[in-house]
Design brief:
The structure holds two protein chains of two kinds.
Chain A (H helix, E strand, L loop, with lengths): L3 H17 L7 H37 L5 H19 L15 H19 L1 H12 L5 H17 L1 H9 L4 H38 L10
Chain B lengths: L1 H22 L19 H22 L10 H16 L3 E4 L8 H20 L3 E5 L2 H17 L11 E3 L4 H15 L3 E5 L6 H10 L3 E6 L5 H7 L2 E4 L1 H11 L2 H29 L4 H8 L2
Parallel strand pairs in B: 1-2, 1-4, 2-3, 4-5, 5-6
Helix pairs in contact in B: 2-10, 3-4, 4-5, 4-9, 6-7
The chains are: A mainly alpha, B alpha/beta.
């Protein structure tokens, strides 16, 4: 029963979605896929509680057992409730509650969460530099070719570099666009995308037929 | 049996569908006008779907009948057991990240399938496993799969419910948590499978700095260069979806992979024909076949 019901649900949902693709979107069959996505959002909303339970249990256990860094776990727990509780309480009681401008949630989001997210994203530049250094080291003819191509592409992508390339004879920028970006690069990307799309379709079919059951914990 | 049950179930389903449409036409027909039931401009896509499904089912049938099917080696997947063994020898955990996508993405489902296989190996070797997730639905599916793997390996008592844990719903909060874990616990093996976005390089570079063996797999071409630069092995595109079938070695599942390869060959031939026709300037009708009818 625990295996059969999910397989039947997967089969019906999958088949309806595929069939729906061939019908107008203002019909029931044509809009069924969108309907399933709405259901997923609703189910996802309810399961959020599972996430809260998981994060509280893991961090609370660490605090109780005084695991290394337990002080930070207290901070995590405080952060979870400090963000969540004021946002779900009615704003009619106080302007600090709810999610409107000037509320506790709004303040925490704008002045703590958002800058921290942006900081994390900004560090990506340094990670790219270290990864690029490793990837572009000229250890072999292939790596050297990659290095030269990468330098030219990076030069072309910044205004100053493009102006510099235009000074050289041979329309290098145009050649890069035609042969590297729209030629080799595009061909490889499309090859990967076609392969991945076929793989996804094949896996979907295996799931619909109940051949692939490993996502249910079955071998 | 699989094919006959598929055909009979499909027929029953279509019969019910036809019955519903005949009783309640607005299910399939637009109420505003009498526009046709079927989108004829997508007939080419329907033909492709039918050919694709038939090929997969045919190869699955052959595989079930015992016909030998060759599968090329995928080094990244062959290395999974070695990498877990290394973690066992070093007494350090294995970190598995099933992407940051929701469960409605096929990449996440593929990652959950691979997680089941990895959990069997960690259960066998009694190696600690850590699986941080970004969505509660993935948490529920991951916990079910890992628990089942431990039970199947006879190690149900070793299963820790917090092996799969929800860490954060925000992309960068998730990344910060996982990076912190990598630098503190220094897992011997990091496995990244599924849908990744801009955080891919942050995760993989941190794992690299922590000295972990890293195996990654994603179907997103824009993230592949980052994984290739920072990981020891990378599964590209379709290899991610093939992973669970490859690791299981079950004939029925490998049949699907062979069918997929056959369709790929057909597409390659179609592309070559298109290139030749376009080169000679007579390919307009051919291109039109693949756009709309």
């Amino acid at each position: 029963m625990r295996t059969t019901v999910p397989i039947v649900v997967a089969f019906i949902a999958g088949l309806l979605s595929v069939v729906g693709f061939f019908f107008r979107t203002d019909t029931f069959l044509g809009s069924v896929r969108q309907e399933f996505l709405v259901w997923l959002t609703i189910v996802g909303g309810f399961t959020l509680l599972l996430g809260v339970v998981s994060i509280v249990r893991v961090n609370w256990t660490a605090v109780v057992r005084k695991k290394p860094g337990w002080q930070y776990k207290i901070l995590t727990l405080v952060a979870v409730f400090a963000m969540a509780l004021p946002s779900v309480l009615p704003s009619s009681k106080s302007p600090l509650l709810g999610r409107a401008e000037g509320s506790i949630y709004d303040w925490l989001f704008n002045y703590l969460q958002s800058p921290m997210m942006m900081t994390m994203f900004a560090t990506l530049a340094f990670y790219i530099a270290s990864a690029a250094y490793r990837a572009f080291r000229a250890r072999s003819p292939e790596a050297t070719l990659l290095l030269i191509t990468a330098i030219l592409i990076m030069l072309w992508r910044v205004p100053m570099g493009e102006a510099f390339l235009d000074l050289l004879p041979g329309h290098i920028a145009q050649l890069l666009n035609t042969y590297v970006m729209n030629g080799v690069n595009m061909a490889v990307q499309r090859g990967i995308i076609i392969g991945a799309a076929l793989g996804a379709a094949s896996m979907s079919l295996r799931i619909m037929l109940g051949i692939e059951r490993t996502y249910l914990g079955k071998s | 049996m699989v094919i006959s049950s598929f055909v009979s179930t499909s027929l029953r389903f279509l019969l019910i569908l036809a019955l519903v449409i005949s009783v309640c036409p607005q299910v399939a027909w637009a109420q505003a006008d009498d526009a046709p039931l079927f989108r004829a401009d997508r007939i080419n896509a329907l033909i492709l779907v039918v050919v694709f499904c038939s090929t997969i089912l045919l190869y699955t049938r052959w595989a079930k009948q015992g016909k030998s099917l060759f599968l090329r080696k995928i080094p990244g997947l062959d290395e999974v057991e070695e990498a877990v063994g290394r973690a066992t020898e070093m007494g350090r955990p294995v970190l598995f990240i099933p992407g940051i996508g929701e469960l409605d993405e096929i990449e996440t489902i593929a990652a959950i399938s691979i997680l089941g296989r990895v959990a069997r190996i960690t259960a066998q070797y009694e190696t600690p496993l850590m699986v941080p997730v970004r969505y509660p639905l993935v948490l529920a599916a991951g916990q079910e799969v890992v628990e089942q793997a431990y039970i199947e390996m006879g190690k149900g008592d070793s299963y820790d419910k917090d092996t799969v844990r929800y860490v954060a719903g925000e992309q960068w909060a998730f990344t910060a948590t996982v990076n912190g874990y990598m630098m503190r616990e220094r897992p011997a093996t990091n496995i990244y499978m599924g849908a990744f976005f801009a955080e891919s390089l942050l995760l993989a570079e941190t794992g690299n700095a922590a000295g972990s063996i890293q195996i990654a797999g994603t179907a997103r071409p824009e993230q592949l260069p980052f994984f290739i630069a920072a990981c020891d092995y990378t599964l590209m595109g379709e290899e991610l979806y093939a992973a669970s079938a490859y690791l299981s070695r079950e004939p029925v599942m490998t049949g699907g992979l062979k069918g997929q390869d056959f369709i790929k060959m057909v597409i390659i031939v179609l592309v070559i024909v298109g290139v030749i026709l376009a080169t000679f300037g007579v390919g307009d009708w051919y291109v039109h076949l693949f756009r709309e009818v």
